[in-house]
């Protein structure tokens, strides 16, 4: 059975730009690994030109930063995962977490559904419109 990914874009706030949060099987992965006050990556960095860049996954494994503690990753460390595609399956594995935090489990996504979710979030640019 495959895991289910939903990517949410949180609106910009007084301290931070719009950011991404990754929900897998109904659970917020960032909050689960670094706490509710943790941050996901900035939407403007990950969603460039309607694409999700490193999240797309290829046959070559790529480490992707997907979160950090509120005090910044430079201080306490980042939440990162290796994203890799194996045929029709995208795998998130080999988590690295800030010191003292718990790592999420390995996830396996059906490639078509995963690609559709990346396309959906990449096409909706509401967060980049001023005002």
Folded structure, characterized:
21% of the residues lie in helices and 32% in strands. The protein is built from four helices and seven strands, in the order βββααβαβββα. The chain has helices spanning 29-34, 43-46, 73-76, 111-123; strands spanning 5-10, 19-24, 27-28, 62-68, 78-86, 89-96, 107-110. The strands form two sheets. Strands 4-5-6-7 form a four-stranded antiparallel beta sheet. A three-stranded antiparallel beta sheet has the order 1-2-3. The mean pLDDT is 87.
Relevant terms:
single chain; 131 residues; alpha+beta; four-stranded antiparallel beta sheet; three-stranded antiparallel beta sheet; 4 helices; 7 strands; 21% helix; globular
In a nutshell, what does this entry contain?
The protein is an alpha+beta fold and 131 residues long. It has four helices and seven strands; from the N terminus they run E-E-E-H-H-E-H-E-E-E-H. It has helices at 29-34, 43-46, 73-76, 111-123; strands spanning 5-10, 19-24, 27-28, 62-68, 78-86, 89-96, 107-110.
Strand-helix topology:
Blueprint: E1 5-10, E2 19-24, E3 27-28, H1 29-34, H2 43-46, E4 62-68, H3 73-76, E5 78-86, E6 89-96, E7 107-110, H4 111-123
Antiparallel strand pairs: 1-2, 2-3, 4-5, 5-6, 6-7
Shape: globular
- Overall mean pLDDT stands at 87
So how many helices? 4
Main sheet makeup: 4 strands, antiparallel
Strand content: 25-35%
DSSP helix fraction: 10-25%
Biggest β-sheet: strands ordered side by side in the sheet: 4-5-6-7
List the secondary-structure elements in sequence, H or E: EEEHHEHEEEH
| Rg on CA atoms, Å | 14 Å
Report how far apart the termini are.
42 Å
Number of strands: 7
Structural class: alpha+beta
Low-pLDDT regions: none
